[in-house]
From TrEMBL:
UniProt GO BP: DNA repair
Chain ranges of the Helicase ATP-binding domain: 285-501
Gene behind this protein: helq
GO CC terms of this entry: chromosome; nucleus
PROSITE patterns: HELICASE_ATP_BIND_1 (PS51192), HELICASE_CTER (PS51194)
Species: Oncorhynchus mykiss (Rainbow trout)
Protein's name according to its UniProt entry: Helicase POLQ-like
Domain Helicase C-terminal: 549-741
Length: 1071
């Protein structure tokens, strides 16, 4: 920005050269008149001349103009009336000093060689307490400096500069005593009485100070200061204009109330140049504008998430409220965290000009001053760090064992909480307990139809019921695929609905029967209409292996286009991928060969040198399998490669359709079964909905392979209505109702049966009472559950007379705060109590056993030979611990030998200890491949076990925090949770906390010198991308953004802790 500063002269007349001479006058213009001083101050005159000559030499380079110091700029001397006032003040002060000197004969010390004017006599000696400078300045207020140039203000505001330039030994003004050690005794003073130094005029002092300002070196150039002044003025104008805008609206720009910059980011990051018509309609609905609850329902891949993201940004930026985004899977949470960090980093990290109602709002970054100034929404100007990541709100991940309860207070910043279903429930509980739920202005639920999905559906219902009951100002937005009973959900959420059958790409559904393809048409009597016959030549040998003609179906689209093959089991995924490779031509190997070589290297690196033999065979052809048997890092690499076009075909299970969005030109359903269960209508729609890539394909295709025996069932499947969504609070004998009642009592939401009844009337279960509660009413169910909680010792009745309110016991509080399943809370308490009696701490085994999830036991049967081999490798102390929990060496030896064991042994304990041995081996070696090979378990199962254990360890930690008798576990389980969460070498854990950094990448970062969170937070993304192998610029930006966010979050947590320590107690006694 260029700025021209004009100074208007107050007078056009030529200044008279015959003016009073001072020490600020240029040397060549000074005459003998400069020596006119008081005749009785000879010594003082000589000192003054010496000082004047010193100042002349010091400032002569600034005094070379033909007129005076200031050239055409009118100095303070232009105002004769002001100077006259200053002269009168100066004369009065000189007369005042003379009178004091005469009356009190207060001596002034003059030391030859090195004069010191800082030492004054104490007040007890009746000396003046203030010098002339102090007396003079006392009469001025801050208003006197309002019109000063910024350079002079900078000088006055810099105490070091002022002291360096104005208070040197050569020129010190009288100030309170600084050097007591230099004071002289009273006797010496009386002997060395010298007349006081003659005072200069006030105008001389003022001009001298201005000259010192001019001579002061500035760390900021005058051009920069001038630009800063112009920027400040423009921001001030914009602020005044914004204040004139009606505060009734929170809109910040033309893009649905958001700045145009948000629209540009959506285009840059997602490739979306414009919104679909349904999205525009939805965002302009009255329910959205007036902040009423809303459910919008569309087919898969219709673009539902983008609407939610825009609404979230609007809530955070416009209304300055927190937002909660609930997602069903950890992978989706991590994906959204990365996108949010990168998006928000770009919102605030670039200089931009934003037009808002005719006001130009500008963002400048001044690197010299390490400043960033942004004119933000809602008439607020916030300073951002020069890196551009000091955001107006935080992005916090609540998934797995991550997330703090309650969350750190934002200290003026808003937070976006991105959470899994279980973590969102814990988060809402903690916000209710701390009376902060009203800070959450928006709750968005993805896959709302999961309300009907077993125990997870019950948790969603509990979370939303609490939000509806507690906070009337929080808006709830639900996204869902097509629902069969949308009205029930509407009634539960008190919401309006918006439905549309829009798909960005036309979907054509087919079925394959033998070698013929039929188009699905529900209007036809047979539901199918013949389309074509497969044209692919099969040999007799190939026909026996590929009876379903999968090779023929996939080679019609790959490698130029993508394809997904959904298989009923994980093993079938691997077999189908290997089978297809056998019959592909060598041309497939040449397609993107270099990129596939890089992928293989990354996969091998993620396994510490080990590579899955199936992937080793299939990846060169552009194929891979995808299911839970892969590690999370392998799945991530496969997904990225597929999205980039390096892989053209994935064989996968149905979980891919419900997880991350990976569209394809053609989707093939290998069978109408998921494991042994026949497909549901919703599952079918979710899988075929992946067909068709918006912006790439003109249409998508789905082909369901069926056998003659399944023809009737498939017809019913294709013509059936969507399944209805039923409340799952009664799932597993009413476990959901029990958990809900326990938590609402513990959170003081309700404390009587009548209040509980009122709360339960606001649940989905109440809406569907006639469908779900067939044998007894909801009120009867509620009463029975309260009695059961009393029997289990989780709830009690208050002992206060005439009270009778319900209260949770310590065990009850620990149960709901730890999110412990009610089925296991008693068992967990007994195990922890027994563990305290003989807790072994010379290894992790005992602690690991205590946090091994109970619900994982049924998923693994011990290999007794492996069990015995691992048992014999334990230390004597560890074997003693195993015997203490109920598993002896003799028992394991007999089982390994195939002998019958008559002694009754708890099989849950036996299997749980086996899983604990797996986890201990993993923590010791951190090599998942070798552990999987040793215990003959899949890599995916071991990683699932590790993930579940870290989550359960976090739950047990919160459980023990509420029970005083378990105080030793707090420190022990905190560290174990951290170890289980990342399961890497200790030095890599800080890097693993960063979103998008897995073990392989953490090692590369560490070896490249990025060893801490601070290293990553302050890294240059360009340098990072060049330094670390196979790290793209976008990924580097995401890593740096996440590291900065984590660093800020940790700093806020420490700041909050400090604020709590310094806060004055509210109940402090006072007189």
């Amino acid at each position: 920005m260029s700025a021209e500063i004009k100074v208007k002269r107050q007078s056009s007349r030529k200044r008279s050269r015959d003016r009073r001479i001072s020490h600020l006058t240029p040397a060549r213009k000074r005459t003998s008149a400069s020596g006119r001083q008081c005749p009785d101050n000879t010594g003082q005159i000589e000192l003054s001349r010496a000082l004047d000559q010193s100042m002349d030499a010091k400032f002569s380079e600034y005094c070379s103009d033909p007129e005076d110091l200031f050239g055409d700029y009118d100095s303070i001397e232009s105002d004769s009336s002001f100077l006259a006032k200053l002269d009168r003040v100066g004369q009065n002060m000189r007369q005042h000093d003379i009178e004091h000197t005469t009356s009190s004969r207060c001596p002034v010390i003059l030391l030859a060689g090195n004069p010191d004017f800082t030492s004054l006599k104490s007040s007890t000696d009746n000396c003046p307490k203030q010098s002339m400078t102090e007396s003079f300045l006392k009469g001025f207020t801050d208003d006197a400096f309002l019109d000063m140039p910024s350079s002079q203000l900078a000088f006055l505001q810099d105490p070091q500069t002022a002291d360096r330039n104005c208070c040197t030994d050569e020129d010190k003004t009288s100030m309170p005593m600084r050097h007591p050690e230099k004071s002289v005794s009273t006797e010496d003073r009386n002997e060395r009485h010298i007349a006081p130094k003659a005072r200069k005029s006030v105008s001389d002092h003022l001009k001298r100070a201005m000259m010192a300002n001019a001579a002061t070196p500035s760390s900021v150039s005058r051009t920069a200061l001038q630009k800063e002044a112009v920027v400040t003025e423009e921001i001030s104008v914009a602020m005044q204009a914004m204040e004139s805008v009606s505060m009734a609206t929170t809109d910040l720009g033309p893009f649905f109330g958001l700045p145009t910059k948000v629209k540009e980011l959506i285009c840059n990051l997602k490739g979306i140049k414009d919104l679909y018509e349904w999205q525009k309609t939805c965002l302009n609905l009255d329910s959205v504008q007036q902040r009423r609850n809303l459910i919008y329902s569309l087919p898969t891949s219709g673009g539902k998430t983008l609407v939610a993201e825009i609404l979230i940004l609007k809530e955070l930026l416009c209304r300055k409220k927190d937002a909660l985004f609930i997602l069903p899977y950890v992978s989706l949470v991590q994906e959204k965290v990365l996108w949010s960090l990168f998006c928000l980093r770009n919102v605030y990290n670039s200089s931009f000009i934003q037009l808002y109602k005719g006001i130009i709002i500008k963002h400048f970054c001044m690197s010299m001053a390490n400043l960033s100034t942004v004119f933000c929404m809602h008439s607020q100007v916030r300073g951002l760090a020069s890196f551009g990541l000091e955001l107006d709100f935080m992005v916090e991940e609540y998934a797995g064992s991550k997330g703090r309860f309650p969350p750190v207070k934002g200290r003026g910043k808003r937070s976006l909480y991105i959470a899994t279903i279980e973590k969102a429930h814990g988060l809402v509980n903690s916000l209710i307990e701390t009376n902060r739920l009203d800070n959450v202005g928006l709750v968005v639920v993805d896959e709302l139809h999961m309300l009907g999905d077993g125990s997870r559906g019950a948790i969603i219902e509990m979370t939303l019921a609490k939000v509806l009951y507690i906070s009337k100002s929080t808006q709830i937005i639900g996204m869902s695929a097509t629902l069969g009973n949308l009205q029930d959900i509407q009634k539960f959420l008190k919401a309006e609905s918006y439905t549309n059958d829009f798909r960005p790409v036309e979907l054509k559904e087919y079925v394959k029967l033998k070698d013929s393809i039929y188009e699905v048409d529900p209007k036809e009597e047979e539901c199918f209409r013949f389309s074509r016959v497969l044209n692919f030549k099969y040999s007799s040998a190939m026909q026996k292996i590929d009876q379903d003609h999968i090779v023929a179906l996939v080679t019609e689209v790959i490698p130029s286009q993508s394809c997904l093959v959904f298989c009923p089991t994980k093993k079938n995924c691997e077999n189908v991928a290997g089978m297809i490779c056998k019959y592909l031509k060598e041309d497939f190997i040449q397609h993107k060969q270099a990129e596939k070589a890089v992928l293989l290297g990354e996969l091998r690196g993620s396994g510490n040198g080990s590579l899955c033999p199936v992937l080793k065979k299939t990846v060169p052809y552009g194929l891979a399998y995808h299911h839970s048997g892969l590690t999370s890092e392998e799945r991530k690499l496969v997904e990225e490669a597929y999205s980039a076009g390096v892989l053209c075909l994935l064989t996968c299970t149905s979980t891919l359709a419900a997880g991350i969005n990976l569209p394809a030109r053609r989707v093939i359903l290998r069978s109408p079964y998921v494991a042994a269960d026949f497909l549901k209508r919703s599952q079918y729609k979710q899988m075929v909905g992946r067909a068709g890539r918006a912006g790439i394909d003109t249409h998508g295709e789905s082909i369901l392979i069926l056998q003659d025996k399944d023809k009737v069932l498939v017809k019913k499947l294709l013509s059936a209505p969507m399944e209805i969504c039923i409340s799952n609070l009664m799932h597993s004998d009413g476990k959901g109702v029990l958990s809900l009642i326990l938590s609402v009592i513990g959170l003081n939401i309700t404390n009587s049966l009548e209040q509980i009844r009122d709360f339960m009337s606001g649940t989905l279960l109440s809406v569907q009472e006639k469908q779900v509660c067939l044998e007894r009413s909801l009120w009867e169910v509620t009463q029975e559950c309260v009695e059961l909680l009393k029997e289990k010792g989780l709830v009690t009745v208050s002992t206060e007379p005439q009270d009778g309110s319900l209260q949770v016991t310590k065990l009850g509080r620990a149960t709901y705060k730890g999110s412990v399943d009610l089925t296991y809370c008693d068992l967990l308490y007994r195990d922890l109590s027994k563990g305290l009696e003989s807790l072994m701490l010379n290894s992790f085994l005992h602690l690991i056993y205590l946090v091994t999830p109970y619900d994982m036991v049924s998923q693994c049967k011990p290999d007794w030979m492996v069990y015995f081999r691992q048992f014999t490798m334990l230390s004597a102390a560890e074997q003693k611990m195993c015997a203490a929990v109920g598993v002896s060496e003799s028992f394991v030896a007999r089982k390994a030998a195939g002998q019958n064991v008559k002694k009754n042994v708890d099989q849950v304990v036996v299997s749980r200890l086996y899983l604990a041995l797996v986890l201990q081996s993993l923590l010791k070696e951190t090599d998942l491949w070798s552990v999987a090979d040793r215990f003959q378990l899949s890599r995916g199962f071991i990683q699932t076990l590790l993930s579940s254990s870290s989550v359960f360890c976090s739950c047990v930690l919160h459980f023990t925090e509420e029970l005083e008798e378990f105080w030793p576990f707090k420190a022990l389980l905190t560290e174990l949770t951290r170890r289980l969460t990342y399961c890497v070498q200790a030095e890599l854990i800080p890097l693993m906390e960063v979103a998008g950094v897995m073990e392989r990448r953490a090692k590369l970062l560490y070896n490249a010198g990025y060893k801490t969170l601070a290293h990553l937070a302050n890294a240059d993304p360009n340098v990072l991308a060049k330094t670390v192998e196979n790290l793209f610029k976008k990924q580097a930006n995401q890593i740096v953004a996440s590291a900065k966010m984590l660093l800020n979050e940790k700093a806020d947590a420490l700041q909050e802790e400090m604020d709590d320590l310094l806060m004055m107690p509210l109940d402090l006694l006072s007189l």
